[in-house]
Amino acid sequence: MRLLTHNMLSSNIKGVANGFPLKIEVVKVVEKEVDFNIDFLKNMFHKVEWKALAEASRTVGYAELPENVDAAMLDSDDFLHKFHHALLELHLEEGALVCPETGRKFPVSKGIPNMLLHEDEV
Amino acid sequence: MWYLCVFYHRLLDYRKPEVESLADLFSKGLTDLQCNGSLEWKLPKHHHPDSPFHFVNLPSEEIARSVANRSILVKGIFELWGEGSNFEELEESIKSYPDEKQLPYLTSDSTFKITVETFGKVISFEEQTERIRSLSYIPFKGRVNLKNPYHTFWLIETDDYDSNNGLPPIAGKRIFFGREIGTADRKLLPTYQLKSRTYLGPTAMDAEMAFLMANQAQAKSGKLVYDPFVGTGSILVAAAHYGAVTMGADIDIRVVRDGRGPDCNVWSNFKQYGLPMPIGLLRADNNLPPWRSGLKEKLVNCLLTVYNVFRVDGLEFKSSFNFIRVICPDIAVLFMEISQIHRSLQITRAAKEVLYSESAKVFDAIICDPPYGVRAGGRKSGGRKLLKGVIGPYTVPDDKRTGHIPSTAPYSLVECVHDLLDLAAKMLVMGGRLVYFYPVLREDESIDTTFPEHPCFKLVAISEQLLSYRYSRVLLTMVKIGPYTEEIALASKIKHLEFKENHLKWLEEGNLHSAVFSPADNHLNGSGDTKITKDSKARYRGKYV
């Protein structure tokens, strides 16, 4: 699971008011190279929750992202490459996503998060 | 400018919408050109609407070329130099075509080629050569080059006899001569055909159809495309071919995670064609999608409040909003605090709408083939027992929570479509496209023209594909035109309930399946008269091709 996916997911258990961002429990993180696509990065820049992305990338062991950003930084190659790496190249291969409110764990195995709810959570 | 557009004679309902959607895609960025997404069409004399020959008005030759090259069903788009019902008329027509439009393509330093094409008949090689020679009145100065010419000209003729060409009779024969602007690249179909695919499911989408869907969704580089019923990824493969970044979800974890082994899964389907892999695959339920709600809606509400505090007189709303964004980079936290203090402030409606469109929606397109219970049934979370209301919800004991496999409940089509529209309204960018298949029973020969509606969407294309005598599926293309708000979510729910009531008889679980598969005898009982009306209809292959 890429951090882009993590940035879009939240816990949707019944009764949970604020299920975002999910905490990440790391068992195994792998890096996979992805083609650099500047249009896509610019498209996504305004859509990600930056705080959650910076936090998540630190959790998986990449601390290069700045705390605060603004659109002017999109002109910097260095920044774009860091953003690209954090957003698309870091994979949580094994681990879990933890609901910030209830502590319910959504397992991530073989890179696929399992967001399905149990019968009594619907 | 008007062009002759010649289609492949197949999937008739899909041809014009494809050209319209691509023309819209390539005209974007141009000002005041074809902004409404619909094009002007005309038919040649005496031609039936199902004819492969159409005239279309496109903004420029460049756009016409882009449209033709990317399309699947366009045999060619041509600049028409002349037409007629016999060769004398054709000659006259070509001779009256202005010289300044002909001569630049006939110069001595260029090379050319003439292709002879027929529709509804076959002519021998000698006849073809003879026809090319008869064009000697055109002042070709360049040399012939059959392999790689600068300019290709087409002589296309359709015959007047009324049978075997798959169309209702055409009154007179028609000959067209034109300069080729662009042709479709159908070579990609054998490359991507399903039988070459390593990992297949029972409902994998046919490659040609998947490409048509990707074209309807205007997939291209830099865009994010999502399929909530991804299965083996057959639809996303087409979107990825056009450069889109893809993402998919499925309720069945076996398809998305395991496939049939290390080299036979969704990932390997992309690797096989050298395409970039989906950016994310997950197991999720379309009934309870795990996406953070409305993405940034909370932030938007805070912003609105702050905007009211900081409102600068005389400034347009948008610019003062940008002003706030620039001066406070870490808006989220700061605005949260301020909004706590100024909770009581009122927000104008216009301001709210600007902010909602400003608030980031993620997906540029959603393309899918929902499970409608004919070949594959949908499932949702919730559990069987709970759904039937016999026993209360099953509570998972605490010691068994890890590794618990939840049971799922059947997911009716009507619910599924509602969830899909709601998700699309919430997650698509403004102008984003929702492209999906919807089943239709063909009980009364004419297809039922009521399709699901949503206040956020405009339905721009309806293309039917006949699947059997009894039912067909319709590809619906919807464009997001309005922002998603809570009021709209409610209104659409009410609309949906009305829709459900009117269509309940076959949208309910299992009904569609039995309508499609029940023994023929039941179906025909007492319907002798309908049979007569069917027979009395003009018979031609039409949509069956």
TrEMBL record, chain A:
InterPro entries: Trm112 (IPR039127), Trm112-like (IPR005651). GO terms for molecular function: protein heterodimerization activity. Transmembrane segments: none annotated. Gene3D superfamilies: 2.20.25.10. One of its GO terms (biological process) is rRNA (guanine-N7)-methylation. It comes from the Eukaryota. Pfam families: Trm112p. Belongs to the TRM112 family. Interacts with TRM9. This is Uncharacterized protein. It comes from Solanum verrucosum.
UniProtKB/TrEMBL annotation, chain B:
GO terms for cellular component: cytoplasm; tRNA methyltransferase complex. Residues 2-186 form the tRNA (guanine(10)-N(2))-methyltransferase TRMT11 N-terminal domain. The keyword Methyltransferase applies. One of its GO terms (molecular function) is tRNA (guanine(10)-N2)-methyltransferase activity. Keywords: Cytoplasm, Methyltransferase, RNA-binding, S-adenosyl-L-methionine, Transferase, tRNA processing, tRNA-binding. It is found in: Cytoplasm. Its main location: cytoplasm. Coiled coil: none annotated. It comes from the Eukaryota. This is tRNA (guanine(10)-N(2))-methyltransferase. PROSITE patterns: N6_MTASE, SAM_MT_TRM11. Its EC number is 2.1.1.214. It holds the Pfam family Tmrp11_N. GO terms for biological process: methylation; tRNA processing. Belongs to the class I-like SAM-binding methyltransferase superfamily. TRM11 methyltransferase family. Residues 196-244 form the Ribosomal RNA large subunit methyltransferase K/L-like methyltransferase domain.
